[in-house]
Amino acid sequence: MNRFRSVVAACLCLAAASQVTLGAQCQNWNSEQFFERATVDAVRACLAEGANANDRDEYGITPLHRTAGLNSDAGVTIVLLEAGADPMARMNEYDWTPLHVAAMNDDNPVGVITALVRAGADPNAKAVDGLTPLHMAAGMNANPESIQTMLDVGARLDAKGSNGLTPLHMAARLNKNPAVVAALLAAGADPNARDQERRTAWDYAKHNRTLRGTEIAKQLKMHVSKASGHP
Predict the structure, then answer these.
(1) Cα–Cα distances in Å, from 24 out to 42, 47, 53, 123?
(2) Which pLDDT score, from 0 to 100, does residue 161 have?
(3) How far apart, in whole angstroms, are the C-alpha atoms of residue 176 and residue 160?
(4) Closest by alpha carbon to 142, among 91, 183, 100, 112?
(5) What interhelical angle do 110-118 and 74-82 show, nearest 10?
(6) C-alpha span between 212 and 229 (Å, rounded)
(7) Which residues, at least 6 apart from 52, have a Cβ–Cβ distance to it below 8 Å?
(8) Where are the beta strands (DSSP E) in 82-176?
(9) Distance set, CA 63 to CA 35, 56, 88, 106, 169 (Å)
(10) Residue of 2, 6, 72 lying closest to 37 (CA atoms)
């Protein structure tokens, strides 16, 4: 579990379950404990008992946020969507949609992500600081396959946050897996793009301990050197 997903998990753990009158198996509805192991049948049963597909706790976390980050069974996501769950629901503090959370899921839940987008989730929705789901995948997901998954559903490779950060900047700055940076470059990310402070991906990579000395870090440095006219 990476650092950013740890933040999500901590938030999920702190959030209280909704106060609804449900049977014993549904008492933990809209909780980490329920959705981490939820099955299609269990979710259907709780919905039939009156559980709210759009329930929001004090943090603004909904059942879709929870299953997107904790459960890779697309069937669970689809059942919630069919019950009217909002694919663009926003968490209070970070303004994340369920797709932002799914993009950070190291299991790369392709079916979940596809179901959310088909239901109307915007693959380029901006959260706090203008960050998109692809920014989240790039910076916080150690699974390089998540990059292509997000691109396949329409995520913009050149999306910029409010400070000019691109997904490649995020990966170079925060990701612990060089293969994620490599996946972005292979997809066509611009290694010479600069943020508002004029920093390139290389400027971030040289301060990322897990990238120092790696072949991908050398590639980033080489791109900047060529662009500046230096060998």
Answers:
(1) 12, 13, 18, 36
(2) 97
(3) 21
(4) 183
(5) 20
(6) 23
(7) 18, 20, 29, 30
(8) none
(9) 8, 8, 12, 19, 31
(10) 72
Cα angle 65-71-74, degrees, rounded to a multiple of 5: 90
Q: Which CATH number fits domain 1-122: 1.25.40.20, 3.90.1150.10, 2.40.50.140, 1.10.10.10?
A: 1.25.40.20
Q: How far is CA 189 from the centre of its chain?
A: 18
What are the residue ranges spanned by the domains of the chain? 1-122, 132-231
Evaluate whether 1-122 and 132-231 have a shared fold. yes
Over range 128-137, report the average pLDDT.
97
3-state helix, strand, coil in the chain (%, to 5): 50, 0, 50
List, for residues 69-100, the tens digit of each pLDDT value: 999 999 999 999 999 999 999 999 999 999 99
Helices 110-118 and 63-70, axial angle in degrees (round to 10): 150
Sign of the alpha-carbon dihedral angle for 104, 106, 108, 114: negative
Residue type, 84: G
CATH superfamily of domain region 132-231: Ankyrin repeat-containing domain (1.25.40.20)
The pTM of the full predicted model, rounded to 2 decimals, is: 0.89
